[in-house]
Write a structure and sequence with these properties.
This protein is about 25% helix and about 35% strand. It has about 110 residues and is an alpha+beta fold. The strands form 2 sheets. A 3-stranded antiparallel β-sheet has the order 3-2-5. The protein has a two-stranded antiparallel sheet with strand order 1-4.
Length: about 110
């Protein structure tokens, strides 16, 4: 019986520490619609910075890895696509008022 009690206590501590590690994080959702012009898509790694009015920002180096929500095997950033990303990050001091998308320059049509 003592083994079961000890096991559940350790399990509780693990869950508690996991919950506390996300306590100061916020959830962000980013929608990106790729243009519909010829060669409008890209195979590059796309990153983003989300800025608040105070100049603070959250940097996401790879949106797809950070929180790509599309089905497995989805080809992100293709011409005309709407891609959705959601993930956790440090909370900013104010609402988001600017976005800077970046391309790492790899892959076809990286401009």
């Amino acid at each position: 019986m003592a083994l079961n009690t000890t096991f559940f206590f350790i399990l509780f501590l693990c869950v508690l520490s996991t919950a506390q590690s996300f306590e100061d994080d916020c959830v962000y959702t980013v929608y990106i619609r790729t243009g519909s012009v010829i060669k409008g898509g890209t195979d590059s790694i796309i990153g983003a910075r989300l800025y608040d009015a105070y100049g603070e920002y959250l940097e996401i180096k790879n949106l797809e890895y950070w929180g790509g929500l599309m089905e497995p095997g989805h080809n992100y950033y293709e011409r005309g696509n709407l891609d959705i990303f959601s993930g956790r990050g440090e909370c900013l001091s104010g609402p988001i008022c600017a976005l800077n998308l970046t391309s790492d320059g790899s892959g076809a049509h990286h401009g």
